[in-house]
Amino acid sequence: MKKYLLLATTLILSAGVWASDVPYKSITQCQFDYDDFNFCSKVNIAKYKNALKAQDPNFNGKYILLNLSSSPKSFRFVALDTRNGLALPLRDEIIGFKDDKGGLTGKPPLIQYSINSPYLCTKGSISAYRDSYDNVKTCFSIQDDEYSEYGKEFTRLDTPEEIN
Known about the structure:
By secondary structure, the protein is of the alpha+beta class. It is built from 2 helices and 11 strands. It is globular. 23% of the residues are buried.
């Protein structure tokens, strides 16, 4: 009987750890240079709070990767740390493939990530002030940043690789 009671107590405590309700803490950056997307808008903060309450991690073991874009043609990602409530926005806007004249072809970007990988990898075009690339493969990850107030940033791993 004692074994069953111990087992039941262990299961309840374990379930409590997995279902922890970490509140939203802060965001590492609200806006990026010459970008009108506001990661700190009331609407986006409400999305962070809701995701932290309702979703399980889906990226890099402990993060919820959330697309905040209101357009079906673009992606604006933020990674929410489910252990401390910190939101880490991605500077780059991810969009689809472009033709030779710079117009979108209608082919959406390919986006790959998982709970077991520290990388968000994309194929398509990315847009950021003075740092945009068309039809490239790019990978991003959460990295240590000694200059950030929170010591982390969500950024590109290296220069995007052109694809044909």
